[in-house]
Amino acid sequence: MIPVEQAFQLLDENVTPLPLTNVPLASSVGSILASEILSDVNSPPHDKSMMDGFAVRSDDVNNGRKNLSIIETIIAGDWPQHPIESGQASRIMTGAPLPNNADAVVMVEQTETEATDAGQRVQLLIDSISPEKNILRQGVNFKTGQTVLPRGHIVRATDIGLLAEVGAASISTREKPTVAVLPTGNELVSHQMKPLRGQIRNSNGPMLVALAQQFGLGVTDLGSSVDAPDQLANLIKTGLTHDILLLSGGVSAGTMDLVPGILKDLGVVEIFHKVAIKPGKPIWFGVNSSEERKRYVFGLPGNPVSSLVGFHLFVRRAIEKMLGSQIGQIPSEHGVLHTAHETRGNRPTFWPGKRVVDKQTIRKFEPLVWRGSSDLFALAEAEGLIRFQENTTAHPAGEKVEFFPFA
Question: How far is CA 298 from CA 178, 202, 214, 225, in A?
């Protein structure tokens, strides 16, 4: 049994990023940028109006010239044909380019227009205006050649507009790993069936499939396998055609825990087996390097919360590294316990918990009522896992803790 930090180190040493690929902008959400995104334009591309109104010289307005000759109308997509001279104004629409010499825009609501024999004029209903009022200068948001998104950034839906603005028709990222999920155990039946005596529904399979899908990965559900060597070996062979194989159950030390032996026979090299955590101690991790592309295998414990903890602490870390994320440590939050709590055992405990919102600036976390590694009910309210250090049992309110959010 090894410490959790050593398990993280071994995982980081053995997992490598997948090859680079280009994905179109429309399907890039969730991708990790393999290179920074540079703008090929200024934003805005020109000095522009932020309002419908009239482009003016602020000196005219501030010196009492409020009846101005309208020399042209500028709409978005057009380009000004005339500079503004003293005593003149241009009707302008939101987003349209500002004419030369203009340094402010008077909102249309603050004007009145009239037709005269000499042409249209505008009466300004204001006494003064500040230079730069209601205009946005070229390149004030960002400039040509500027980095708008850094390498390692995870593309969000809110980034798509920005990427489109800078002409990123496709982005460079890492290939997404494929995942296979295979729970094991004679006691398992489909979640669609009513269990008989001695049976339980397969909850790990659907849970692990959903967890992997949160990363936008292609996931193959292999169903479940009884503890029969031939059937288990055949299904594991199928699973090893994927980048990641997630097994649950069969990794402890009992008579029917067949997974480690079968994996060894199939050429998967064990990297670690059993980590000093609670729940999830029996976790197994190995690598199959016999083919051109590495395959990673996680043998997660059969108890569902143990499987969940193993996924969030280890599988998630491997996925992020394969996708090109630069991980120095697991994403976590620091704060204090909201209420006192007790734990048992000499291993670090990862306990389901949630954030507490109050008027304090410090983050607080609340342990939930949880009855052990088979109790999924507590997870319905959980937002993540609170880490309690080993060799301590009493944890008073206000104790500093680390919180590992599910998302």
Answer: 14, 18, 18, 16
Q: Tokens representing 384?
A: 């993540």
List the CATH number of the domain containing 149.
3.90.105.10
Stretch 73-82: mean pLDDT? 96
CATH number at residue 127: 2.170.190.11
Is 0.70 surpassed by the pTM of this model?
A: yes
- 117: domain range? 48-136
Of 20-34, 98-112, 366-380, the range with the lowest mean pLDDT is: 366-380
Residue 119 counted as domain residue: yes
pLDDT at 399 over 90: yes
4 or 407, greater pLDDT: 4
Q: Are 239 and 263 in contact (CB under 8 A)?
A: no
pLDDT tens per residue, range 281-330: 999 999 998 778 899 999 999 888 999 999 999 999 999 899 987 654 56
Q: Which of 136, 164, 197 is the last residue of a domain?
A: 136
- Residue 247 CA to residue 314 CA, distance in Å, equals 13
Token readout for 263 is 């994996």
Number of domains within the chain = 4
